[in-house]
Structure formats: C-alpha cells, structure tokens
Amino acid sequence: MTEEIYDIAIVGAGAVGISAALAFARDGYKTVLIGNLDARRDGRTVALLNGSVRFLEALDVWPSLAAEAAPLETMRIIDDTGSLFRPPPVAFTAHEIGLDAFGWNIENATLVEKLASAAKSYDGLTILPEQAAGFEAGDIAATVSLSSGETLTARLVVAADGRNSRLREITGIEVKTWAYPQSAVTAILAHERDHRETSTEFHTRYGPFTLVPLPGRRSSLVWVTSPENGKRLADLDDASLARAIEHQAKSLLGAMRIDGPRGLVPMSGLSVSRFQAPRMALVGEAAHVFPPIGAQGLNLGFRDVAALRDAVVDAHDNGLEPGADETLQQYQRGRDLDVRLRTAAVDGLNRTLLSGLIPADFLRGAGLLAISHIGPLRRAVMKEGVLPHVGAPRLMQGIAA
C-alpha cells in the first residue's frame, strides 16, 4: 500500500479496537485502524465500570455517551437457587466507596457507534475498512496483509479481532477454550416501575438472571439458562417472552414488554498462553472470553488497551519503539495476573451455581454473608470489582498525561 511505517496498527474495529486506535492517535503515534466501522444491534449492553468511564473520558468520548447511559448506583444480588444455605439478598451502594455510581449501562451498538464517530473525525488516525488476512513479524516492523491484496507495515500490531482472532492463529499462540451447558438470552425491556438505578442479579441454578438499568423505565436483560430453556425462550413471541421475564423477576419491576432487539448467545470461555508475540499484542476477546458475570468482559478489554498504552509510553520514555521486546514484556507482566485471576473468579462463581453440591452452595452463601456483614471486606470487594488500584493503568486513574 505504501512504504511508510506506522507506529501502531490495530486490527479489529469493535469497541476495544476503536478505543485502542483513539488512545494511540491521541498520544501522537502514527496509527492505522483496520476494520469495518459498523455495529449490529442484538439486545446486548455493557456496564461500563468506573475505570472504563475514566478511560473514555480521557479519550474525549464520554460526553457523547453519557446521555445514552444509565448510572448503576446500587447492585443487588438475590439467591434464587433453592439452596439449603441460601443467604438473604445483598445490596451494594456506590456511595459506600465514595462514587456516584459503580458504572454506567449502555447498549453495545451505541457505544461502538459513538467510538466510530470519534475515530472518523480524529486527525492523524487512518481508517482502512478492510480485513487483515496475514501477518509477519520482522526485525524493525511487522507486515500486515489485507483482504484487498495490499500490505502495510507497523512497529506494533494490536490484535483486537475477537475470539476467533486470525492474527492470534497465525502467531501460534496457544489457546484454551471451554463451553458451559448454558445459553444467554439478551433483550431490551420496558417496565412499569422505576428501576431506581439498581442492577438486580438473581442467582439461579442455571446461572445469573440480571436486569441492568437503562435510561428511563427501561432495562437490559441477560438471562443465563440451560441451552434447552434458552431455545424455548428465544422461540417465544415478544409478549410471551415478556411475561416469562416478569415471572422470573418476581414482578420486581412490574409488567414488562420487549423494547428492542433480542439475542441468544451460547456461553463459552477462552484463555491464551501469552498476551503477546513478536511485534504483536492481544487485547479484548482475542485474549480472553468468559461468561457475562460481574460486568468484566469489555471492561477487561479496555484495561488491556490502557495497560498496553502505558507500556508503549514507558518504552518511548526509555528510548524504545512501540514493538520492542521490552515493551511487549511489560504488557505481558501487567496483564497476566489480572486477566487470569478474573477469569478464574468468574468461572468459579458460574460453576458453583451449576454444581448443586452442598459444599459449593455453602461456600457461596458464606461468602455473600461475609461480604454483606464485614464492612472493610465489603468495601474492598466493591473497589476491586470496579477498578483494581494496584497496577491500574494510568488512563483509568484519571491521569491523562
């Protein structure tokens, strides 16, 4: 395509990929984003936790998102497993840890649209609406082959091309995948009662049933259930599905109706043996996939980007270029423990719900009781869930420079 060398090439134009392009272009790196800037509405939303909101503020994107998002001021957990050790409902409020909200819930497609709009208007950011077909690392740069047959070179390539990452496959990074005996029904709902900025998660024997606020008397649904029940629910008409959701929610928000797109997603997980290869870093679902529990998925992807940005900036300060081995080793060290601990925590919680074994139920119930009644533990867990303070990337601490 051209003989010029980009500093950074990002492959994949989802929320994580676009945010990476904005973050590096903002810092003055010659950046190219490879992918189609489009978003399909499928009834899925994302709860942007406090650290992710700070990250989007640093990218100057948050003002365009705020009016489309609803604050999550209270997070309520209700055990609906029928367990002998069922704890009472637990509610966590953001003001306990000095925040107005744990985060903000927004439709995923709206988030991508606003990020794409910012990218299109950003000087110094090149956008190529193509697909990456190949990758080859070199001594001073990597070569990316495009679907058009053209090529480009970059000091560092960021693979943000999703769970089926072509670039990850080319580099030979080992992947572990697993499936759960679950599917997630997603939908946008309208309801007759105010949600009062409260996210409610029912722990059922088949997985969590979660209602998350949207602006107005609207909420998003993630109903994790068995594949058979998921298919049955997906086959219902809108009115019948709304009644089934109201029944499962114990009429907490009154009568409901479907007020947007619906989806059905098989539940699975993915982990990688390493987060980097020569001249390449993995971010987002190219690096990790797990069930939609605890709002960790996309937030973890944004944390990947912010951590990689820190590694690149630190390398520059030490006279190194973005794709240097030292840069990628710093990124590997920064992501390894964080991603693996959160993957294990989400996987462990999900499997205790599915097991039905008395010891697992006892441990889960005892844990919720301890968090509910021990103030310092309760606040520590809330802070860790919203943003880990040890090793948090600078853009997620409000440090914009």
Automatic annotation (TrEMBL):
FAD-binding domain sequence ranges: 7-312
Q: In which pathway does it act?
A: Cofactor biosynthesis; ubiquinone biosynthesis
InterPro entries documented for this protein = FAD-bd, FAD/NAD-bd_sf, UbiH/COQ6, UbiH/COQ6_monooxygenase
What keywords is this UniProt entry annotated with?
A: FAD, Flavoprotein, Monooxygenase, Oxidoreductase
Q: Which cofactor does it need?
A: FAD
Protein family according to the UniProt entry: Belongs to the UbiH/COQ6 family.
What is this protein called in UniProt?
UbiH/UbiF family hydroxylase
Q: Which organism is it from?
A: Microvirga terricola
